[in-house]
Specification:
This protein is α+β, with helices and mostly antiparallel strands. It contains 10 helices and 45 strands. Strand 29 and strand 30 form a beta hairpin.
Length: 609
């Protein structure tokens, strides 16, 4: 009998407070709505504000319009770049850092409409599909607050911190795309009977991402001109010289068979650029930017596959690729030296989505050549398979694939990812994909550093109407990187994409693929040693000994340095060669590894995940 009573009492202890909180919610919301202005707040139709925003080390003018029907626009002019986004009844648009006009993604629009529904009180009156529950009290900023959680039927959460006595709003804790921030509101003033905040401070766990907005003027219930929401005229950043409409095919370096380097000139300086559809904006390495003499502005956070890195901004950057001119780009400036060492190849420039936005990009992997075309003059190959490219948050593109017969999921389309496929925790944990599989550990990432992740081999993946078998897949760990997303569920890289002639047309939201029959027959590259050893100053330094691997069985240790393979010395000149890819050799092969102290060890390669 005792074993029945204890669970029942525990259930009662949980249930009674919950029932009490449910009863307390309606009067708390009523006090809050009255505090905001009662009937005047309920009649609120529109808001127009002007003021100053301080972010990324810059102080800039800001203007915002919003309407209770969900339309909204916000502008902030940072000088080096202008941020602008408008959400309309049928979608919306935004400017990227270089001033190109892009469609607002469905999730961009959803986030803005959620906030409008909260700002106008619609969500608290049962509108916009919102539901509210009262959570346990929380302490913040030296006080204890009532916390009301509002949801809209999706994965995002909005917690209002309210004062119990009168329902005064202290701020909102917002979780969107698995990222949490707190928006503290202050300097409340009455405007035509409606209490409005004239101060907004946004905090996250990255100080460089904090934003402070001070409102100078605020109007309510004023007409919002249709011109506010009109899509701006396209600013052309891409032009062809000599009256051409295409570069024609240009050879590229397919370094290590997993990186696309294209000859280019940047502000007149001859160099190479790494093509990367997964980069939200073009990036210059800090040292290369210093050589060019570009002026740096602000301080912001860049989120990469490995975590977070500090970045600055530079404007007026011109990139020439054959007869193509990309002019007046605003770029991020990041120290890429560590990524360069990991790759084993100079990395002065990462060419991001600006090139993809304006043009058709034709990457002919079988013949190691690339071409850029005006969309109006391009004719697709007759055998190309067409897939929709879905716009995701940040203006990046996603494609859909299916894992072992499961429903298709959106994954980032990422020409800058050297691997085949990585899956994000929001997907693989929920699907239980690691259960019952032979797996190990690896290091993955680039900008933001390396992080330890699980790795396994999927039996098959369906993509572009083709079944790809035995696909080595990284199961990203949860952390402060792009893999934290719960909107994109993975990252599709060159291990898969390079098996096709790949053509993108962002204006038509289309990816065209022509399978390369020879490449399709080739097995995927996978490590068979267990020595995860990125190159460093001419040697390969062991950073991780993979569990269950041949190296683990042979007693290898982190920190040991490999200087030769089968008697052939490793060095900067071997980067990108077959020698540097020794650990991807076939199952059963034996290699002799020479360590820095001159000792030699024999290792038999085998599949271990």
């Amino acid at each position: 009998m005792r074993f029945l009573i204890v669970p029942l009492l525990a259930w009662l202890l949980v249930f009674v407070p919950f029932e009490s909180r449910a009863n307390a919610l309606p009067p708390l919301l009523a006090r809050h709505l009255a505090w905001r202005g009662g009937a005047a707040f309920e009649a609120l139709e529109s808001v127009h504000t002007q003021g100053t925003t301080m972010a990324s080390g810059l102080q800039v003018p800001m203007e915002m319009w919003s309407h209770r029907d969900g339309r909204a626009r916000r502008d902030a002019d940072y000088g080096v770049m202008r941020q602008s986004m408008a959400i309309t009844s049928n979608g919306g648009w935004k400017l990227n850092a270089s001033g190109q006009v892009e469609d607002a993604s469905a999730t961009d629009a959803r986030d803005v409409r959620h906030r409008v529904a909260l700002d106008f009180g619609t969500a608290l009156r049962g509108g916009a599909g919102a539901k509210a529950v009262l959570l346990a009290d929380e302490a913040r900023d030296g006080r204890t607050w009532k916390v009301v959680r509002v949801t809209f039927g999706d994965e995002d959460l909005y917690d209002l911190f309210l004062q119990e006595a009168d329902g005064a709003l202290h701020g909102l804790r917002i979780r969107e795309n698995n990222v949490t921030r707190f928006v503290r509101l202050g300097d409340w003033r009455q405007v035509k009977g409606v209490r409005m905040p004239f101060l907004e401070e946004e905090f996250s766990d990255a100080p460089d991402a904090d934003v402070r907005t001070v409102v100078a003027t605020l109007e309510v219930n004023v007409p919002l001109p249709p011109s506010v929401f009109e899509r701006p005229q396209e600013v052309r950043k891409a032009r062809f010289a000599n009256g051409r409409r295409s570069t024609g095919f240009m050879p590229f370096e397919f370094f290590n068979e997993d990186r696309v380097y294209i000859p280019a000139q940047v502000n007149g300086r001859a160099t190479q650029v790494l093509l990367d559809s997964g980069a939200e904006m073009t990036v210059l390495d800090t040292a290369f930017a210093r050589e060019l003499g570009v002026e740096l502005h602000g301080q912001l956070e860049a989120v990469g596959s490995g975590g977070r890195a500090q970045a600055r901004l530079a404007s007026g950057v011109d990139i020439a690729l054959g007869d193509l001119r990309l002019t007046g780009l605003t770029v991020a400036v990041i120290d890429l030296s560590e990524v360069e060492r990991l790759i084993g190849h100079p990395l002065p420039v990462v060419l991001g989505k600006e090139a993809f936005n304006a043009l058709v990009v034709d990457v002919d992997f079988p013949n190691r050549r690339v071409a850029f075309h005006e969309a109006s003059s391009f004719k697709a190959p007759p055998k190309a398979v067409r897939l929709p490219l879905v716009e995701s948050a940040g203006g990046q593109r996603a494609v859909h694939l299916s894992v072992e017969g499961r429903p298709a999921i959106p994954v980032l389309f990422d020409v800058g990812n050297s691997g085949a496929l990585s899956l994000f925790p929001a997907y693989w944990q929920q699907a239980g994909l690691l259960e019952g599989r032979r797996s190990s550990k690896t290091l993955s990432g680039a900008v933001g550093g390396l992080k330890e992740s699980d790795v396994t081999t999927l039996k098959h993946v369906e993509f572009a109407g083709i079944t790809l078998k035995d696909v080595p897949t990284v199961f990203d760990a949860a952390g402060k990187s792009v893999s934290a997303s719960d909107r994109l569920l993975g990252n599709l890289g060159l291990g898969v994409l390079a098996r096709f002639r790949m053509i993108t047309d962002y204006a038509a939201d289309t990816l065209m693929l022509v399978p390369d029959v020879r490449a399709m027959r080739q097995p995927f590259s996978k490590d068979r040693s267990g020595l995860i050893a990125p190159p460093s100053d001419g040697t390969f330094v062991v950073k991780l000994v993979a569990p269950g691997s041949p190296a683990a069985a042979a007693g290898w240790k982190v920190g040991e340095e490999i200087i030769a393979v089968d008697g052939k010395p490793l060095g900067p000149e071997t980067a990108g060669t077959e020698l540097a890819r020794w650990r991807y050799r076939p199952h059963g092969q034996k290699v002799v590894l020479t360590l820095k102290d001159g000792s030699k060890r024999r290792l038999t390669l085998r599949d271990y995940y």
